[in-house]
UniProtKB/TrEMBL annotation:
<dbReference type="Pfam" id="PF14748">
    <property type="entry name" value="P5CR_dimer"/>
</dbReference>
<keyword id="KW-0028">Amino-acid biosynthesis</keyword>
<keyword id="KW-0560">Oxidoreductase</keyword>
<keyword id="KW-0521">NADP</keyword>
<dbReference type="InterPro" id="IPR053790">
    <property type="entry name" value="P5CR-like_CS"/>
</dbReference>
<dbReference type="GO" id="GO:0005737">
    <property type="term" value="C:cytoplasm"/>
</dbReference>
<keyword id="KW-0963">Cytoplasm</keyword>
<comment type="pathway">
    <text>Amino-acid biosynthesis; L-proline biosynthesis; L-proline from L-glutamate 5-semialdehyde: step 1/1.</text>
</comment>
<feature type="binding site">
    <location>
        <begin position="6"/>
        <end position="11"/>
    </location>
    <ligand>
        <name>NADP(+)</name>
    </ligand>
</feature>
<dbReference type="Pfam" id="PF03807">
    <property type="entry name" value="F420_oxidored"/>
</dbReference>
<dbReference type="GO" id="GO:0004735">
    <property type="term" value="F:pyrroline-5-carboxylate reductase activity"/>
</dbReference>
<dbReference type="InterPro" id="IPR036291">
    <property type="entry name" value="NAD(P)-bd_dom_sf"/>
</dbReference>
<comment type="function">
    <text>Catalyzes the reduction of 1-pyrroline-5-carboxylate (PCA) to L-proline.</text>
</comment>
<dbReference type="InterPro" id="IPR008927">
    <property type="entry name" value="6-PGluconate_DH-like_C_sf"/>
</dbReference>
<comment type="similarity">
    <text>Belongs to the pyrroline-5-carboxylate reductase family.</text>
</comment>
<feature type="domain" description="Pyrroline-5-carboxylate reductase catalytic N-terminal">
    <location>
        <begin position="3"/>
        <end position="97"/>
    </location>
</feature>
<dbReference type="InterPro" id="IPR029036">
    <property type="entry name" value="P5CR_dimer"/>
</dbReference>
């Protein structure tokens, strides 16, 4: 079965490259397109077996599974444009969080899945948040699960936790990359270490931390307890973090949820018009 990708921006490209690297999909099974076709052709040059379609309609016509990797407010106009081409046999996969599977199902006659990826999927790691529509057959569910399992850990989520799950799994890499970068910048500014050496050490540290957790050698709590010896240096640093970070992540979540509600309302107006 051919797999189509409409939109080859950051996340569309990440999914394409992850599918190919993992062997989940062969290049000649992929049909891709983008509003700016030059971006799609650039991917094709790196992976010559890929087909670049002239437009989104051609992707739908040629593929059984179609992934919409476009911005939230572009989804509804695109679905209207593609209305004549969907069949009940198609599986539409949307990667945008503000649009529910119920809204998608109301707009198309086919099977619908929402799958929210993470940049970690590019390393064939991390989670991908999956919500199946009510029309998805058992075969469709199995196919989509098997496809995503090659590049990530598929996690089924309810609509109620869409935003917070996305904050952790999808936005989390950006949040914690920012914190790590600030840690490196402070180290270089306040001590004799170079930014390059601090970056190397911090990178090795975060990879090692992930490996400890992946191998289930420690939980987050027990890991902190092992490193933070009573009366020691680490404990002094933790005390600063406890004072300064009080309420920070609560505010982060409040802001992301506020923006999410705004987007959901704009999308609702589009789909109800």
């Amino acid at each position: 079965m051919n797999i189509g990708v409409i939109g080859t921006g950051n996340m569309g490209t990440i999914l394409i490259e992850a599918f190919l690297d993992s062997g989940a999909v062969q290049a000649d099974q992929l049909v891709i397109t983008n509003r700016t076709l030059a971006k799609a052709f650039a991917i094709q040059r790196a992976h010559p077996g890929i087909t670049v379609a002239a437009d989104a309609a051609e992707v739908v016509q040629r593929c059984g599974i179609v992934m919409l990797c476009v911005k939230p407010f572009d989804i509804h106009p695109l679905l209207q444009q593609l209305a004549p081409h969907w069949t009940r046999e198609h599986c539409l996969v949307s990667i945008t969080s503000p649009i529910s599977v119920e809204q998608l199902e109301a707009a198309v006659p086919c099977q619908v899945v929402r799958a929210i990826p993470s940049i970690a999927n590019r390393a064939l790691s991390g989670s991908i948040l999956v919500t199946f529509g009510s029309r998805c057959s058992a075969a469709c569910r199995q196919t989509i699960d098997a496809l995503f399992r090659r590049i990530a850990s598929p996690v089924s989520i309810d609509e109620a936790i869409t935003r917070v799950a996305s904050d952790i799994a999808s936005c989390g890499p950006a949040f914690f990359s920012y914190l790590l970068r600030r840690f490196i910048e402070a180290a270089a500014a306040k001590t004799a270490i170079s930014t390059e050496q601090a970056t190397m050490l911090a990178t090795d540290m975060i990879i090692g931390l992930g490996e400890l957790l992946r191998r289930d050698l420690y939980t987050l709590q027990t890991l902190q307890e092992k490193v933070c010896v009573k009366g020691g240096i680490t404990g002094e640093g933790i005390a600063v973090l406890e004072r300064r970070l009080d309420g920070v992540f609560e505010e982060v979540l409040a802001k992301t949820h506020e923006k999410f509600r705004e987007d959901v309302e704009k999308v609702r107006q589009q789909f109800s018009s």
